[in-house]
């Protein structure tokens, strides 16, 4: 009996802000080599001559079975080689994205200080916050660059200018979309101020036009209105409360403007805006005040006030979901 052996081996390659003028998978590195030895064995091909009388059905069946086995063997070869090539391309793409990701983080860290973090984080929410599940419109697509003149985006030109310098350095080595740049920058802004480390996957495509107006949650909404607005964006009440914790940064009055922690929730429970006057009455937005008056939101506020690690973990998950909302991704 003859045998056919095919050896195939490839080498490894490698802040939430509502409409207000105030500031306020990362691809896992997979380098495992893909090496496979596949052996096929087939009997020698037979030349079949059938008698004219149709009595030798056993011979026919044996011959057809042999031919089918050989055809399966031959037809499998392109798939195997194609699979190895795709595996190699995927590994190279992941390595490229990893290098670009680290480059973006490095350049962002050079320009985003604690004092600028709140504005950069707000930029994320105003770009991604336009997403609506109905019609699959808006989202994290870099369209904010066309929307800076809108009243709700007042003050964001400065934050975008900060990132423009970092983006120029990255683009000189590897072109990156505004959507990716802003998503990573927001995560770095949180980390710079002592918050959780948030991995961000790359590959978003930029929009070539602005998103529709009126898509951001209004700061004057009550709790039911906020929950409904976030629901249309695919975000739960828990995620609404977790993302609202971004207001701990900036000039909203929730603790230090330069420290990302759970002070937002502790101060919400104190309700300082109900005092008779002074600076305490100016703490937070109407939308912040509304959360603590809602029983469902209040449960999460109390949990995050008591457990900063829980807040960090839930904020990280909600942030990743937010910056992936409505994103269009490039293909390999």
From TrEMBL:
Belongs to the peroxidase family. Ascorbate peroxidase subfamily. Gene3D superfamilies: 1.10.520.10, Peroxidase, domain 2. InterPro entries: Ccp1-like, Haem_peroxidase, Haem_peroxidase_sf, Peroxidase_I, Peroxidases_AS, Peroxidases_heam-ligand_BS. The lineage of its organism: Eukaryota, Viridiplantae, Streptophyta, Embryophyta, Tracheophyta. Residues 1-23 have a biased composition (Polar residues). PROSITE patterns: PEROXIDASE_1, PEROXIDASE_2, PEROXIDASE_4. The keyword Oxidoreductase applies. GO terms for molecular function: heme binding; L-ascorbate peroxidase activity; metal ion binding. This is L-ascorbate peroxidase. Residues 1-29 are annotated as: Disordered. Its EC number is 1.11.1.11. It comes from Salix viminalis. GO terms for biological process: cellular response to oxidative stress; hydrogen peroxide catabolic process; response to reactive oxygen species. Residues 117-332 form the Plant heme peroxidase family profile domain. Its cofactor is heme b. CDD domains: plant_peroxidase_like. SUPFAM superfamilies: Heme-dependent peroxidases. Pfam families: peroxidase. Keywords: Heme, Iron, Metal-binding, Oxidoreductase, Peroxidase.
């Amino acid at each position: 009996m003859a045998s056919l052996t095919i050896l195939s081996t490839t080498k490894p390659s490698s802040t939430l802000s509502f409409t207000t003028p105030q500031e306020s998978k990362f691809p896992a590195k997979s380098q495992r080599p893909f090496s496979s030895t596949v052996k096929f064995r087939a009997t020698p091909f037979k030349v079949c001559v059938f008698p004219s009388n149709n009595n030798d059905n056993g011979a026919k069946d044996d011959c057809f079975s042999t031919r089918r086995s050989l055809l399966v063997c031959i037809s499998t070869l392109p798939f195997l080689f194609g699979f190895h090539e795709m595996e190699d391309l995927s590994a190279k793409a992941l390595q490229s994205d990893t290098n670009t990701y680290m480059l973006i983080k490095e350049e962002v860290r050079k320009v985003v200080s604690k004092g600028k973090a709140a504005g950069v984080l707000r930029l994320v929410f105003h770009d991604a916050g336009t997403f609506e599940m109905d019609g699959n419109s808006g989202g994290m697509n870099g369209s904010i660059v066309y929307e800076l003149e809108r009243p709700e985006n007042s003050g964001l030109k400065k934050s975008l200018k900060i990132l423009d310098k970092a983006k120029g350095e990255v683009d000189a080595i590897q072109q990156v979309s505004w959507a990716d740049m802003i998503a990573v920058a927001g995560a770095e802004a949180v980390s710079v101020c002592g918050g959780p480390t948030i991995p961000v996957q790359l590959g978003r495509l930029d929009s070539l036009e602005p998103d529709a107006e009126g898509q951001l949650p209004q700061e004057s909404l009550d709790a039911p209105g906020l929950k409904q607005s976030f629901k249309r964006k695919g975000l739960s009440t828990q995620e609404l409360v977790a993302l609202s914790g971004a207001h701990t940064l900036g000039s909203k009055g929730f603790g230090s403007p330069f420290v990302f922690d759970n002070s937002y929730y502790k101060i919400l429970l104190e309700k300082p805006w109900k005092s008779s006057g002074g600076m305490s009455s100016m703490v937070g937005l109407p939308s912040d005040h509304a959360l603590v008056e809602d029983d469902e939101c209040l449960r999460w506020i109390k949990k995050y006030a008591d457990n900063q690690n829980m807040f960090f973990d839930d904020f990280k998950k909600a942030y990743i979901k937010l910056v992936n909302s409505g994103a269009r991704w490039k293909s390999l």
